[in-house]
Amino acid sequence: MPKSYKLFTFLFLLIFSFQPLVAEDWFTHHHDYQRLGVSAIPLSETLLTRSWIYTEPVNLVFFSNPVIAYGKVLYVSTTQNTFSGLTCLNASTGDSLWHHVLPSVGFNGRGTPTVAEIDTGSATDTVVFVGTGVNGFRCIDLETGNQIWSVTNSPVGNCRFSPSVLIGNKVIYGHDGNRIVARDVKTGALVWQTVVLNGRPYMGPSASNDTIFTGTRDVAGNGSGNLYAIDANTGNILASYDPGTNVAFPSGPVIWGNHILAVSYNVDGTTNLYVWDSHDLTQAPRISVANTGGVLYSTPCGYVTPAGDSLVIYGTEFPLIKARRLSNLATAYNLFTTGLVEVPVAIAANGRALAGDDAGTAFAAGAEGPA
C-alpha cells in the first residue's frame, strides 16, 4: 500500500530527503528535455524524512514545478493580483538565496524554470530561463538572481507555464499567443516563432535531437488542440496530429525511446492515452479507451518494471493516478488519491513513484503497482 504525507504546497515548500542522500539535478520540467520524469537514483520511503521547511512569505505556489540544480531549488510563486517572483533556495538547508520579482498578474505566474549552462564566448554562465507570466521571458543569473536579458510583447500575449528546452544556441518555449518561440540564449534575440497553432502550448515542448514536440489546447475556443512536431532550427511544422473536436494535449508529450506518449484532456471530463510507436506523427497512434478524469498538467512518464512490463503513469483530475501497459494500453492499476493529481508523477530508479494532490497529500508508492 502507498504511504501518504500531508503537503500544504500553497503555504510552504517541503523538501524530503532519503538517506543516503545522493545529489541529482532535476533541472527542468519533468527532469529532462524528453520529459521522462524518471530519476537515476533510488529512493526508500522507509527512510523518508523532512530535511527542512521553507514558508513562502507572501505568494502562492500555483502550478509551478520546482527544479533542482547546482545545489539550489527554484520555483515561481504569485500574489494573485500584482506580481510574482522566482525564488532560489539552498537545497541542503532551505535558506533563501535570492528572489527575483516578475511582472505577472493574477494566476499568470505559473512558470516552471529551466537551469542551463550557456557559453557567452568568454566564459560559461549558469542561468535560469523563465516566463514572466505577462508578455515576456527572461534569462537570469543563477548565482545572483540578476537579470541578464528580458523580452516583452514579442509575440504579444502572456507567457505563463513556459518550461523551455535548449537546442544549440536557442532556448525554445511555449507562449500563450498560441506559438512556440525560439530565442538566442546569449541575447534573447528572436530566432524564430511558429505560425499560430491550434491552441496554447501549456507544459511546453519536449525535444529529440533537432525536433521538438508540443501539445496544445484552445482554452479560449472549443477546448480542442493538436500535437505538433516542429523543426528546432527553423520553427517549421514538420507534422501535426488532430485528435478531433473537444480533445487537446495540454500536459505535453513525452519522448520515451522510439515512442511518443501524450495524454488527452477531453471536454467531457475524460482522458485517453495516445502512443506513437515512432517519432512520425503522420502515422496513426494507438489510443486507449477513455477513463474518467481529465489531464491538464500531469505530464505522463514511463517505467519498466523488474518483470519487464513497460508502464505509462499519469495523474488525473478524478482523483486518480493511472497506469497503463505500453504493449496493449490496458489498465495496469489505479491508485486512488485524496484530491486531484494535477502535477506529474516522478519515479525513482528503484521504482518508487512520488506524487502530490490538491488536498495536500504526497504519495509514495511502487510504480509497478500497489502490493
End-to-end gap: 6 Å
Largest sheet: 4 strands, antiparallel
Residue fraction in strands: 35-45%
Overall residue-averaged pLDDT value: 87
Principal-axes shape call = globular
| Helical residues, percent | under 10%
Contiguous runs where pLDDT drops below 50 for at least 5 residues: 5-22
User: What is the count of β-strands?
Assistant: 34
Spatial sequence of strands, sheet with the most strands: 1-34-33-32
Structural class: mainly beta
* Radius of gyration over all CA atoms, rounded: 19 Å
State the helix count: 0
Overview of the molecule:
Helix content is 0%, strand content 44%. The protein is mainly beta and 371 residues long. β4 and β5 form a beta hairpin.
Summarize the structure.
The chain is mostly beta strands and 371 residues long. It has strands at residues 3-6, 12-17, 49-55, 67-69, 72-78, 84-90, 96-102, 114-119, 124-131, 136-141, 147-152, 165-167, 170-175, 179-184, 190-193, 206-208, 211-215, 227-231, 237-241, 247-248, 254-256, 259-263, 265-266, 270-271, 273-276, 286-287, 291-292, 301-304, 310-316, 320-325, 331-336, 346-347, 352-356, 361-366. Helices cover 0% and strands 44% of the residues.
